Fold:
Amino acid sequence: MNEIENKETVASTHKIGIYLWIWGLLFVLSFFSYMVDWFQFQGLLRWTLILIFMFLKAGLIMAFFMHLFWERYALVNVLLWPMTAIACFIGLMAAEAKYTVLTRLLYFFTGG
Amino acid sequence: MSDNSLNNLPGGFKGMSQDMGSDQTVFKGVQWGKVMMWIFLLSDTFIFSCFLISYMKGRTSTVVDWPNTSEVFSLHVNGVPVPLLLIAIMTFVLITSSGTMALAVKYGYEKNRKMCGWLILATAIGGLTFVGMQAFEWSKLIHEGVRPWENPFGAKQFGSFFFMITGFHGTHVSIGVIFLFIYSRKVFRGDFDKGKRGFFTSMKSDYVAIEILGLYWHFVDLVWVFIFAFFYLW
Structure:
């Protein structure tokens, strides 16, 4: 258990500073991800930046606003491992989409 | 966390293996309602993932150019188009409401009734603002001729994914707003201090309910992070 929680016997409450910090960081990260579009970054740079800011924001929200950082691993792992199934699904459908677009290009434009 | 022995349990993966393998309560120190909310959010994650994955598949596999979201969602300020302006404001509004919710949970556990109530009310108003702006965005796009089956900007699939994904998210926000208003009333009334029994349940109210409500609200914000990245920015 975390040292902050040890002080409180009633319930898990944390210092206000940590919430304000995360809040500020979320604002800054959102601003950065908006800037990605503002400056019209394209291609790999755009996608990389979008993903970095997205995962940072999602991580901060889950870890601190949703208190996962302070939860026991039994709960954290039950929640996070199913995400690997989603990752597999993304992989499968990305491959499927490539196949679909190739067959469409083949039949729509060259007539097979 | 009323059980002090919780603090003496091993943490990390060692703690996890003991929690899981000891033929007893697995989620030690976690109120059951919180676990149930997490399980619900996990299933909701799968639903939103399916939407976003089908969007990925639809967008990748179309041979027609995808509409330029930067232009489609631009607003004109003094005649100058500002890309994604409304979406950016909506993002900031939702993050703001997420912050007030996090503070409401904190003040709830500290039994600070008034601060908790006001912060939940602020969260609800933030959510309401978000839904209002989304309604404006929808009506603007519908006015411009975007339909689930066609649109003037590019690939026809755009409309169906847009209405489905943002609509499902907006529904979540709307349900959240309703519950936020209900819970702010309950907090102001002092239900959680007195342990008043709820309308649907005979169990006593507790401030842990605010954290459970908070989990739902942060999840709505979390989903928006992904929608913002994949649908609007990509």
In short: Residues 83-109 of chain A form the longest helix (27 residues). Residues 3-71 of chain A form one domain. Residues 14 and 71 of chain A are 13 Å apart (CA to CA). Chain A touches chain B through 62 residues (CB under 8 Å).
